[in-house]
Amino acid sequence: MTSHAPDIVTLDNLSQTITPWNPQGESQLYAIVDMGSNGIRFSITSLAPPFTRLLRPIYSTRAAISLFDALKNTPKGLVFLPETIAAVSKTLERFHQLAVRHGVPARHITILATEAMRRADNASEMLEAISSATDGLRVSILEPAVETLFGAVMGSRSGLVGVEGGALFLDLGGGSVQMTWVDTSKPNYEVDAARAGVSLPFGAARLIRVLQEQPADVQVSEISKLQTGMQQAYANLCSNFPALNALKGSHDEGPRVNVFMCGGGFRGYGSMLMHQDPVSPYPIPYTNGYTAPGTLFSKVEHMRRVNEEHDSRIFGLSKRRRKQFPAIATVIDALLATVPNIGNVTFCGGSNRQGALMMKLPFEIRECNPLDILAGVTPDEKPVFDAVLNTLRSALPAEVDFSSMPNVLTPGLDSLFVRDIWTRQGHDSDNNSSFALHHAITRDAEVPGLSHTGRALLALSASARWGGILGPLDSQLQQSLSALLESQHLDAPFWASYIGAVAGLIAMVIPIIPTTAEEVENAISIRAHLKQAEDKRERIVLTIRVASANTAGVSLEDLADRVEKTAKKNGGKKPRYKITAQVSLSP
């Protein structure tokens, strides 16, 4: 008889249980089942080069089977009932068939299980049923540290460019919550974070059962255990990571602790924050990449009341998630009591599935900037892109500090922006201004690295490249995107539009996408500095020299106006800068 002893995945045996990605493999499709406590999720992902780092989704579905709710106390212990085992094995049989029909090799199909399977006393019966239904596939049961690695660390990491300097990473599932500290600039950061991290048995499904079914004294006791566990976990992280310990000591007087969250429970809280965001209507329709300031994040009681009193549907929150919301809020309360100086909180779309795939990849692919992969700049194109970017950056006054200001010329976003400057030139400029706003929001859904802030920057800059003339509905969208950026930095919307206007100026001078860097460098040069104006508004003075050969059909006045009008409108608000563009001809 076949043995169905569980395959326990630990940090120590991880390299033996995770098959590395093979770039020469006949198939680049990978299927993963995540048997979570709140539901069973299945996805097929392409790791085909050169887009491997993007973890491109091919197929995804979910079965609404809560393994945690399905665990029953019986004289034989905490077990899955026969009907649950039958439902789960039938579900995984279907998932297996879907993988086979997509052409996924058996060796590329992985089944992961977490807290509920760890707790079940008859897990072996479930494993045997799954194996029988899936032609012998085995289930990998993740120990808590590996669940932290796949979920809180690499699941979140899969959707990010990088987190240099470090941040708290948390994952809230149905059965447990994980917390750790991640600094992607450190060697071996992922395993160090997983080893130092702590998994607490207070997932949303488990905790809501306590809050709804247990007497008051038990509720108080369990919440106290959660709070104590969170405090001990944080103290342990502070002792392991000096950077976090320094932030803990600074409290309100210094830098704050930034947080990244994944898992369905935390994403549910993110959906509630978006519903209550001061930017209303909020312009981007998904939590992946959403960032909330600590001031909004900490309004837990207000979010509780909204969940209780709001009768209509809240986008992104299912009925089940709303029922679990009191438990989610209780975990947030425990976090805030432990870490009072929270800065920005970013919600991530990754999960154990994406984290497991990331761990298959070689370091150089895993840690590259996914936006560079998305832009796909070839070696032949790179000198041209660099020349265009140098020209755009030369239009930024040296007197302005852009180090803490979101802008579209940051690595990754910059190439995406340049890629779009010379596209859609057969369409009307006003249509393109509208298209640019919407395209930045909807393009490449769930792609790693493209945050809400990044999408807003691309939207405003690309729209301004075409003149930014918009109809009433699009003007409202532009204002919402501007407000989103203002929450990061008051001047960010102006500079996004300004950079877009400069790009439009370059496209007037060079109407066809250049093929050499010299073509850009010989056509236009820009210098910029700030000057104090009489009305106390600072003035940007641009000195623009354009080659005579590049001015056919274009007046110098039109070139100057292309940039100067940026100071006249900005999402309905008057910017604090004036602009003077001095355009002259060069031989």
TrEMBL record:
This is Retrograde regulation 2. InterPro entries: ATPase_NBD, GppA/Ppx_hydrolase, Ppx_GppA_N, RTG2_C. Residues 56-362 form the Ppx/GppA phosphatase N-terminal domain. Residues 382-583 form the RTG2 C-terminal domain. Transmembrane segments: none annotated. PANTHER family: EXOPOLYPHOSPHATASE, RETROGRADE REGULATION PROTEIN 2. SUPFAM superfamilies: Actin-like ATPase domain. It comes from the Eukaryota. One of its GO terms (biological process) is regulation of transcription by RNA polymerase II.
